Amino acid sequence: MTQATKVTRTMTGPMPVKILVALKVNGQSRQLMLSPWTTLLDALRDHLDLTGTKKGCDHGQCGACTVLVDGRRINSCLTIAVMKDGANVTTIEGLAKEGVLHPLQQAFIAHDAFQCGYCTPGQICSAAGLIAEGKAKSVPDIRELMSGNICRCGAYPNIVAAIKQVMDAVGDKS
Ligand code: FES
Ligand code: FES
């Protein structure tokens, strides 16, 4: 097939239909009609107005878009929403419970772990996933396993201190 033929077929082919996608987002059932190529990040921000999750690079390189899907941290910019039909999604808006901040949110404030705050929702969601994974045992582990979350303000020492505090508190309880 020539390049021209390919282009013609693309331009004259039928438009893809929208697809019904059911998600549970922060405990609420949501149904969305989405294009097949809509990312989870765009579904959250543009269709559900949950703009706490940030779009940094949109290429899986910065971690600003990190959310929890069925308890696991993922880059929502690399995730096609229709592939998560039926999933439980937790964003930064869903971490506080009944007006009480999540321990990681409290720790980030206590340790002054942000400057501009753009990376912070992704950092906190990623840290929640990290602690649930139970693999990090030390500060170097935290640094390594949080390396997918970039902070352009360089707040790393405070971010690590905040995560360590919560990780230790969870460890003390278990
Ligand atoms: S916006 Fe998803 S990794 Fe950067
Ligand atoms: S606090 Fe500004 S990018 Fe992290």
Automatic annotation (TrEMBL):
Q: Which CDD domains match?
A: fer2
Q: Does the keyword Iron apply?
A: yes
Q: Which UniProt keywords apply?
A: Iron, Metal-binding, Oxidoreductase
Which ranges carry the 2Fe-2S ferredoxin-type domain?
Answer: 19-95
Concerning Pfam families, the annotation shows: Fer2 (PF00111), Fer2_2 (PF01799)
| Name the UniProt record assigns to this protein | (2Fe-2S)-binding protein
Tell me which species this is from: Bradyrhizobium canariense
